[in-house]
Specification:
CATH topology of the largest domain: Lipocalin
Number of strands: 13
Distance between the termini: 34 Å
CATH class of the largest domain: Mainly Beta
Number of helices: 2
Low-confidence stretches: none
Number of domains: 2
Largest sheet: 7 strands, antiparallel
CATH superfamily of the largest domain: Type IV secretion system, VirB10/TraB/TrbI
Structural class: alpha+beta
Length: about 190
């Protein structure tokens, strides 16, 4: 029979092991899959998003969250696209995971940043194409002077088209798998 001191030590060791099993160390890689699309056109900093774990979360050989477990995150930065420059940007972070025992594990993670496509190539094509078409039409209609005027009018029209169609938002599509890395130890509450 164990003495009172021995029983206390065994109890404390068991308690310590259960706490360790629920603590996710800094540097742990956690991969989630987003539930819905996240667009720089419609989200704002502070907005939450929902996701699910792609793989089991295993700590010290014990699975503390199964693949498919609900997870939540937060948009930490969002900027909508300009029309002729500055594509949209969005940054997200993972904030919590539901554990196997029903508890929520708050986590601090690295961010995932998405940026829309550059406007440059598209704008050059639209503006340059408009200028070329204007020069051709102006040249046919009025010779050299007409070509010069047509170039300016065509470039203006191309700029208008670029401005009307030029938004390049950052998108994180639904069902996108994203890997985050924890930046601090996380213990279940």
């Amino acid at each position: 029979m164990l003495s009172r001191l021995g029983q206390t030590i065994v109890f404390l060791l068991a308690l310590g092991m259960s706490v360790l099993a629920q603590t996710v160390p800094a540097g742990t890689r956690i991969t989630i899959r987003t539930d819905s699309q996240i667009s720089s056109a419609s989200v704002h900093a502070g907005q939450s998003f929902h996701a699910n774990l792609v793989n089991d979360l295993v700590v010290n050989g014990k699975t503390i969250a199964k693949a498919g477990a609900p997870a939540k995150g937060k948009v930490t930065y969002a900027k909508s696209s300009g029309r002729l420059h500055a594509p949209g940007e969005v940054t997200i972070r993972l904030t919590s995971i539901q554990l196997r025992d029903g508890k929520t594990l708050a986590v601090s993670t690295s961010g995932f940043h998405a940026k829309g496509k550059s406007h440059t190539k598209s704008n050059i094509t639209k503006i340059g194409g408009g200028a070329a078409a204007g020069a051709l039409i102006g040249g046919l209609a009025g010779g050299g002077k007409g070509a010069l005027i047509g170039t300016a009018v065509g470039a203006g029209a191309g700029t208008g088209v670029a401005a009307a169609t030029g938004k390049e938002e950052a998108l994180i599509h639904a069902e996108t798998a994203i890997a985050f890395t924890t930046t601090a130890n996380a213990t279940a509450k």
